[in-house]
Specification:
The structure holds two protein chains of two kinds. Chain A is built from 15 helices and four strands. Chain A is an all-alpha fold. Chain A has a single domain (90-371), classed as Orthogonal Bundle (ABC transporter involved in vitamin B12 uptake, BtuC). In chain A, the strands form two sheets. Chain A has a two-stranded antiparallel ribbon. In chain A, helix 4 runs antiparallel to helix 14 (313-337), helix 5 runs antiparallel to helix 8 (212-220) and helix 13 (297-309) packs across helix 14 (313-337). By secondary structure, chain B is of the alpha/beta class. Chain B folds into two domains: 3-256, Rossmann fold (3-Layer(aba) Sandwich); 269-418, 3-Layer(aba) Sandwich (Rossmann fold). Chain B contains 15 helices and 18 strands. A six-stranded mixed sheet of chain B has the order 6-7-8-3-9-10, sandwiched between helices. Chain B has a six-stranded parallel sheet with strand order 15-14-13-16-17-18, sandwiched between helices. In chain B, a hairpin with a 6-residue loop joins strand 11 (241-245) and strand 12. Chain B is elongated and about 95 Å long. The N and C termini of chain B lie far apart (69 Å). At the A-B interface, helix 1, helix 2, helix 10 and helix 11 of A face helix 2, helix 3 and helix 4 of B.
């Protein structure tokens, strides 16, 4: 954490040092919290060791013990009515990992979008990613192609990814005049495009009938399409995306003071906006392609972390990325267990937890702002 | 740092905002860019910062075309201070100043170096902003914010400073505070300054030279006293002004007259007996009401003499510090004779000008309407051992009308004029 060490050397004032120390503390604690969270979350599930357990034919609730679970994970045997080894390696681990990656990606992309739009209410879906992806996914599902085993698992994400990116480029094109990106036009184009594509999706859903449940599940966002392939693809895009956004964090700081100020500080605002839009769109599209539209993370995590660590992107980008991962890991753990043996779409959990928490933070910061 | 602008034109779509502008800002100079709203001064500044891109080699910095420099190079060469800065995001004042180090960052991964921290610290010391380094930027007052932005500009270690109306949202103390700071940087550190300024007098006081824009072209450029003349200001701003010298700073200062046109120029002739600056407001008010005004007898160098000159009022003048001569007195009486009313302002009366009161007495005796304006009892205007006070009393006893103030004078005059 080279970039942090140097910022403590300021010695500007005792109060400033206190703020910097708090930022460092939070930023160092987050990886630990994430590690512990993933560890615990991999043990949470219907089959245990933490969770509601499985009802056997006799009505008895069975739950694997920690010892047996660890044994099953590493040795792959045990006299259980289910193959815990396989559940763990093909479902639980890739799913928790996907939660980490998608949560991180959405939160990081949200941070970048809020900076580009200079609006704390922006989120990664603002330029039409979610509506574009939804159209692709719904089309794939309804065309019946998704039912084919091999084609289906790849086709839905692929089509969702492509339509998401296409939508972003259309919105970007609409918001750009003579090589200059006008963020307000971009914002309105995004809103209009989302409404338009949303209407088409609704139209398709109306005719979906038996596919209705699957489509809705996708639209609400779910991590149930987990696979190691998904982890690898999302991991690569999110990894590169987070790195790029982090490297431009000082430029993003300057952008928050306005495009002209950014220009005058040597951060080329046009290039920066385009780069951030592309990176955030690719990251978000990749995540959404495999999980559907998981709302609120990209909006509230950056916002929340900004209240906690401040607006400086050199701290905010890594903090929000880690916090987004932690948040989605726990949201998915709840989604998997709360109505067991069924699972809830994780987007429902993020919205239910996120909405009120967001309102609370907003209210609190407003009240404190008035006091100060 | 030397700025050269060569035959620069710029348009927004069809609208030509800048037309063939050519000028130079020399190294170490403090140049003011002025002009009415919409004259193109902010556009010119934005061209100079390369925020608005200009074609070909129209703008050169130390002989290098602006376009050949990278954004980072530009930001290391000059810093820009906007009209005002705000953000919805919570940055401390220190964070804002540290942004001035962005153009100097060596790598994207490494943080600020020790030297960056030192530079930011010294910039904040120079602008006296260190005391609120940890406070959120948005919670600062307008003047404090602008000082923080100037600290950021200093942290950029520029050779030049471009400012866009840096004091427009500040109160008078904030304006002087910010302008003094900029002047200090200009004088002590040799930083060249190009500033768009709105306030004519602020510009006259601080600038070495002023470039005056009008409807997109350069109307005049030169020292404040060369550019800020009543003729040029009338042609550019369409306002009548008086230009004087600030007695303390020796800078020129500009006073606007009312731009409201005279409703009805009836030309009823009023003659003023005044002096010591007491006549100025009366002259202006009477002219605005459509009266024809003359004044007398005033010594050259008396402030009422300058007032009358600025208002193009015919006066009977006497050489400086000399008593009223026979010929001036005669001329004064002639003007009184031509007028329909005479006004005696509460001017300080000394041995030199007491003949003005004699003239008033003659006017009353000849049946003229004479108004005597009451003087503030706390201010002694009699410097002739009670003779003046006695004369004024006698004037009133003989039929001159005592009026409390300018307002009463105007209402009585307009009644007399119509009747």
């Amino acid at each position: 954490m080279v970039w942090l060490r140097s910022s403590t050397a300021g010695g500007v004032s005792a109060e400033y040092q206190r703020i910097v120390r708090r930022r460092i503390l939070i930023l160092s604690a987050l990886p630990v919290v994430l590690f512990v969270s993933t560890l615990i979350a991999t043990f949470i599930g219907t089959t245990g060791p933490i969770g509601p357990g499985v009802k056997t034919a006799t009505g008895e609730v069975q739950r694997i013990s920690f010892g047996d679970a660890i044994d099953a994970i590493f040795h792959g045997h045990g006299d259980w009515p289910f193959d815990y080894h396989a559940i763990f390696w093909t479902q639980r681990i890739p799913r928790v990992l996907l939660a980490v990656l998608v949560g991180a990606g959405l939160a990081c992309a949200g941070t970048a979008m809020q900076a580009v739009f200079r609006n704390p209410m922006a989120d990664p879906f603002i330029v039409g990613v979610s509506s574009g992806a939804s159209l692709g996914a719904v089309a794939a599902t309804l065309s019946g192609l998704a039912a084919f085993a091999v084609v289906g698992t790849i086709l839905t994400p692929l089509l969702a990814f492509c339509t998401a990116l296409l939508t972003v480029f259309a919105v970007y094109y609409l918001g750009t005049v003579k090589g200059r990106v006008y963020v307000d036009t971009l914002l309105l184009s995004g809103v209009a495009m989302a409404a338009f594509l949303g209407a088409i999706v609704s139209f398709l859903i109306y005719f979906a009938r038996q596919e209705f449940h699957r489509v809705i599940f996708w639209l609400l966002g779910s991590l149930s399409m987990q696979s190691w392939t998904a982890d690898a693809i999302v991991g690569l895009t999110v990894g590169v995306g987070v790195l790029v956004i982090f490297l431009y964090s000082r430029d993003l700081n300057a952008l928050l003071l306005g495009e002209e100020t950014a220009h005058n500080l040597g951060a080329d605002p046009e290039a920066l906006k385009t780069l951030m839009l592309i990176v955030a769109a690719v990251m978000t599209s990749a995540a959404v392609a495999f999980t559907g539209v998981i709302g609120f993370i990209g909006l509230i995590i950056p916002h929340m972390m900004r209240i906690v660590v401040g607006a400086d992107h050199r701290v905010l980008v890594p903090s929000a990325t880690l916090a987004g991962a932690v948040f989605l890991v726990w949201a998915d753990a709840i989604a998997r267990t709360v109505i067991a043996p069924n699972t809830l779409p994780v987007g429902v959990v993020t919205a239910i937890c996120g909405g009120p928490f967001f309102l609370y933070l907003l209210r609190r910061s407003r009240v404190e702002g008035d006091k100060g | 740092m030397k700025f050269e602008v060569r035959n620069l034109s710029y348009s927004f779509g069809e609208k030509k905002v800048l037309k063939n502008i050519t000028f130079e800002a020399a190294d170490g100079e403090f140049l003011g860019l002025m002009g009415p709203n919409g004259s193109g001064k902010t556009t010119l500044l934005r061209c100079m910062t390369n925020y608005l891109q200009t074609p070909e080699e129209r703008i050169l910095i130390d002989g290098r075309p602006l376009q050949s420099m990278t954004p980072g190079e530009l930001a290391r060469t000059f810093a820009v201070v906007p009209q005002s800065s705000s953000t919805d995001f919570v940055f401390s004042a220190y964070d804002i100043v540290m942004m001035g180090r962005i153009p100097h960052m060596v790598s994207r991964i490494a943080g600020h170096r020790k030297s960056d921290v030192e530079i930011v610290r010294s910039a904040m010391e120079k602008t006296d902003t260190l005391k609120f380094a940890s406070r959120p930027f948005f919670a600062l007052s307008g003047g404090e914010r602008q000082r923080v932005i100037i600290a950021r500009a200093i942290a950029q270690q520029p050779q030049g400073l471009l400012l866009d109306e840096p004091t427009v949202y500040l109160d008078i103390s904030g304006q002087l505070e910010v302008m003094d700071l900029i002047k200090k940087l200009n004088r002590e550190e040799g930083i060249s300054v190009v500033a768009v300024l709105h306030d004519v007098n602020l510009a006259a006081r601080y600038c070495d030279r002023i470039a005056l824009l009008s409807q997109g072209h350069l109307e005049a450029i030169g020292q404040p006293k060369e550019v800020l003349t009543p003729e040029i200001i009338q042609s550019v701003y369409g306002v009548d002004v008086v230009v004087r010298k600030d007695p303390f700073t020796d800078a020129v200062y500009v006073m606007p007259h009312s731009t409201a046109p005279v409703l009805h120029k009836h030309g009823t002739h009023v003659h003023l007996l005044c002096g010591g600056g007491t006549g100025g407001p009366v002259m202006k008010a009477l002219l605005d009401q459509g009266f024809a005004v003359t004044a007398g007898v005033i010594n050259v160098l008396d402030s009422d003499f300058e007032n009358a000159n600025d208002l193009h009022i015919a006066t009977v003048a006497e050489v400086p510090f000399a008593p009223i001569s026979e010929s001036a007195h005669g001329e004064n009486l002639r003007l009184i004779g031509e007028s329909s009313a005479v006004v005696v302002t509460p001017f300080p009366v000394g041995p030199g000008n007491i003949r003005n009161l004699d003239a008033a007495m003659l006017a009353v005796r000849s049946g003229k309407t004479v108004f005597v304006m009451e003087h503030d009892p706390r201010v002694d205007i009699d410097f002739v051992g009670g003779k003046a006070d006695a004369s004024i009393k006698e004037l009133i006893n003989s039929g001159a009308v005592l009026v409390r103030d300018l307002k009463e004078l105007l209402s009585r005059l307009s009644k007399g004029g119509s009747g």
